[in-house]
UniProtKB/TrEMBL annotation, chain A:
It holds the Pfam family BPD_transp_1. Its main location: membrane. It is found in: Cell inner membrane; Cell membrane. It comes from the Bacteria. The gene is ehuD. One of its GO terms (molecular function) is transmembrane transporter activity. InterPro entries: AA_ABC_transptr_permease_3TM (IPR010065), ArtM/GltK/GlnP/TcyL/YhdX-like (IPR043429), Ectoine_EhuD (IPR014341), MetI-like (IPR000515), MetI-like_sf (IPR035906). Signal peptide: none annotated. It is a multi-pass membrane protein. GO terms for biological process: amino acid transport. This is Ectoine/hydroxyectoine ABC transporter permease subunit EhuD. Residues 19-207 form the ABC transmembrane type-1 domain. Keywords: Amino-acid transport, Cell membrane, Membrane, Transmembrane, Transmembrane helix, Transport. GO terms for cellular component: ATP-binding cassette (ABC) transporter complex.
Automatic annotation (TrEMBL), chain B:
The keyword Endoplasmic reticulum does not apply. It comes from Pseudotabrizicola algicola. Keywords: Signal. The gene is ehuB. This is Ectoine/hydroxyectoine ABC transporter substrate-binding protein EhuB. InterPro entries: Ectoine_EhuB (IPR014337), Solute-binding_3/MltF_N (IPR001638). PANTHER family: ARGININE-BINDING EXTRACELLULAR PROTEIN ARTP, MEMBRANE-BOUND LYTIC MUREIN TRANSGLYCOSYLASE F. SMART domains: PBPb (SM00062). GO terms for molecular function: ectoine binding.
């Protein structure tokens, strides 16, 4: 078991190719998770039980089943119903939807944390529901959520290797392909670990900045 | 030069050290083998029992060597050789065809299972593929193959770019992806495709065999280079079984030709 620098240098471009895809998937899934999560959180609080109940059920259902099972379902089962998604799209939908159910809970915590008086004040000043959400509740609810949301962003990033199960050529899959023909795991797997760590550290710094910049609005 | 030294070193090593591996296996009562799940080469039934031509031959040979049982673990083709080197398996018996680069990494036994390559295609072969080169020539064609399998390597060698060689985890997924139109071709050995086609019972699919320009390959049981003595002992028993016809009695019901395995040799297939 010896580290071979020449081999490591040789496979780096291939792995970086995979890293690009990993980052793209993370970015797209994070957007889906952030937006859809908010939709879930707001819909669960809807007055009408016809909206709140099914959404609650859907969220609990997705949150309670493994992501890998969902990915297999989206990729291999849905085509039977005529829905044929390319691997990347299937992956983004799978991960985005799954993480949306987690972020929905974060949003819920943030929203419920806004003092009751704020809702009453909004009603007293005759704001519409839309105005109440957009100008009173969310601006106060979102900043404290940033650390928790950031946590899920990093978790999501690190779960992208699951997509190798549905033939997405992200970084982990690229590393496996390299190992398949070289019979060496030490360099590809170490490099994948290093790249993930580097990206996570960079995103931590970015998210700290974000927290610092926008977190203050809550005060 | 390096290989000469290695051979010398192996020959010079005391016989006691060599015998150790087999003694260890006898003492523990089983050998750990790596398999895929690709009938008829290797098959795992719903109850977990392992069959298929490669494990059946290995089980019999190990029995004759005094190792009563084999314990199989399912692995991706590409992970088998690293797993062997990491001492997770004692042998690979999975239809891992001999190719010179694999022969350089492991110690193969004499040939066991031989088969040509085949394509699983939509009915009527709409794009007219007959070889791996045809797939390389069509810029939109995608081919499915097992990760680290012979077909993946053949496709890449024929010049199909990496992004059009889709790594398929198992036969069932490959079949499904072809039916869904995610793949234009799914490639495996002839007997594996026949098996898959028979199980799928789908009139919209057909098999093309053999693939033009892809020779007949043979697998062997693969051992660690250090366990060459175990490999040699395996070869002795395998040769006896080939002689007596017991070998044919195991592999022929699965559709493999015993004569094909007996008409070639490791030296020839490994290009030694």
């Amino acid at each position: 078991m010896e580290w071979d620098w020449t081999f490591a240098a040789e496979i780096t471009p291939v792995l970086l190719e995979g890293l690009k895809l990993t980052l793209l998937i993370t970015l797209l899934s994070a957007i889906v998770a952030a937006v859809l999560g908010l939709v879930f959180a707001v819909a669960r609080r809807a007055q009408s039980p016809w909206v709140a109940r099914p959404v609650t059920f859907l969220v609990e259902f997705i949150r309670g089943t493994p992501l890998l099972v969902q990915l297999y379902f989206i990729f291999y089962v849905l085509p039977g119903a005529g829905i044929l998604l390319p691997p990347l799209v299937a992956g983004v939908i799978g991960m985005g939807l799954h993480y949306a159910t987690y972020t929905a809970e974060v949003y819920r915590a943030g929203i419920e944390n806004v003092a009751r008086g704020q809702w009453e004040a909004a009603r007293a000043t005759n704001l519409t529901t839309r105005q109440t959400w957009a100008h009173v509740i969310l601006p106060q609810a979102v900043p404290p959520m940033i650390p928790a949301l950031a946590n899920y962003l990093i978790a999501l990033f690190k779960e992208t290797p699951l997509l190798s199960a549905i033939t997405v050529l992200e970084m982990m899959n690229q590393a496996k392909l390299v190992a398949n023909s070289s019979y060496r795991y030490i360099e590809p797997m170490t490099l994948v670990g290093v790249f993930f760590l580097a990206m996570s550290l960079v995103s931590v710094v970015l998210l700290r900045w974000l927290e610092h910049r926008f977190g203050r609005l809550a005060k | 030069m390096k290989t000469t030294f290695l051979t010398l070193a192996l020959m010079a090593a005391p016989a006691a050290v060599m015998a150790d591996k087999l003694d260890d296996l006898k003492a523990q009562g089983f050998a750990r083998i790596a398999i895929a799940n690709e009938p008829p080469f290797t098959a795992v039934a719903a109850d977990g029992s392992v069959s298929g031509a490669a494990p059946d031959v290995a089980r019999e040979v190990f029995k004759r060597l005094g190792v009563p049982e084999v314990v199989a673990s399912i692995s991706e083709y590409g992970a088998m050789i690293p797993g062997l080197q990491a001492r997770r398996h004692d042998a690979i018996t999975a239809g891992l065809f001999m190719k010179p680069e694999r022969c350089a990494a492991v110690a193969y036994s004499e040939p066991v299972l031989c088969d040509a390559e085949a394509f699983l295609l939509p009915k009527g072969n709409p794009k007219g593929f007959t070889s791996f080169a045809d797939i390389a020539a069509d810029p939109t064609a995608t081919i499915g193959a097992p990760g680290g399998g012979t077909e993946e390597k053949l496709a890449l060698e024929a010049g199909v770019p990496r992004e059009r060689v889709i790594v398929v985890p198992d036969g069932q997924s490959g079949l499904k992806m072809l039916q869904d139109g995610r793949l234009d071709v799914y490639s495996l050995p002839v007997l594996s495709i026949s098996d898959l086609l028979a199980k799928a019972n789908d009139p919209n699919l057909e098999m093309l065999a053999p693939v033009v320009g892809a020779p007949v390959y043979c697998d062997g049981a693969a051992f660690r280079k250090e366990d060459a003595a175990l490999r040699d002992a395996f070869d002795v028993e395998l040769a006896k079984m080939k002689e007596s016809g017991e070998f044919a009695a195991i592999v022929e019901p699965y559709g493999f030709s015993a004569a094909a395995a007996m008409s070639t040799s490791r030296a020839e297939l490994c290009g030694e």
